Structure formats: C-alpha cells, structure tokens
Amino acid sequence: MWRLKVSERSSSPWLRSLNNLLGRQEWVFDPDLGTPEERAQVDKARRDFAEHRFERKHSSDLLMRIQVCPMHVF
C-alpha cells in the first residue's frame, strides 16, 4: 500500500530549500502496509494492468481509490 511521506528538515548540504521544505511530500510504496485482503486487491489491479495495458485504457487513480475508499468494490 502507499503512504504519504512528508518532508522534514535536513542537515544535508545537498538538500536546500528557501521555505524549509514546506509542501514537499512524496508517496512511498510499503509492501507490508494494509490487510492481506487489501494487498491481494492491489496485486490483482497491478496484474490486470500489466496483462491489458495495450488493449484498454486504465484508470490512473485505481490504486488510490482502492486504498482511500475501501468500502466500495472497484
């Protein structure tokens, strides 16, 4: 599943910012996050995409909808 990683101040000289990294976020994939049912649903969506990626147009936010709205069936 995906989790949102929000930036923190860094003492690294390679990472500089004028606003202390305000508003910098990234989505990080964590394979151990979520229930086994949710992980199975995500794996099925990924397999479905890989098998049919040249045949049909896929929803780009399907993984987000699976994680944010777990009570719906997609």
Give a structural overview.
With 74 residues, the protein is an alpha+beta fold. The protein has one domain (2-68). It contains two helices and two strands, in the order ββαα. It has helices spanning 36-52, 62-68; strands spanning 2-6, 25-29. Strands 1-2 form a two-stranded antiparallel ribbon. Helix 1 (36-52) runs antiparallel to helix 2. The longest helix has 17 residues, at 36-52. The protein starts with a strand and ends in a 6-residue tail after the last helix. The model has no long low-confidence stretch (mean pLDDT 79). It comes from Zea mays (Maize). GO terms for molecular function: intramolecular transferase activity. This is Cycloartenol synthase.
Quick recap of the structure?
By secondary structure, the protein is an alpha+beta fold. It contains two helices and two strands; from the N terminus they run E-E-H-H.
Features:
single chain, 74 residues, alpha+beta, two-stranded antiparallel ribbon, 2 helices, 32% helix, intramolecular transferase activity, Squalene_cyclase, Cycloartenol synthase
List the helices and strands and how they pair.
Blueprint (H helix, E strand, L loop, with lengths): L1 E5 L18 E5 L6 H17 L9 H7 L6
Antiparallel strand pairs: 1-2
Helix pairs in contact: 1-2
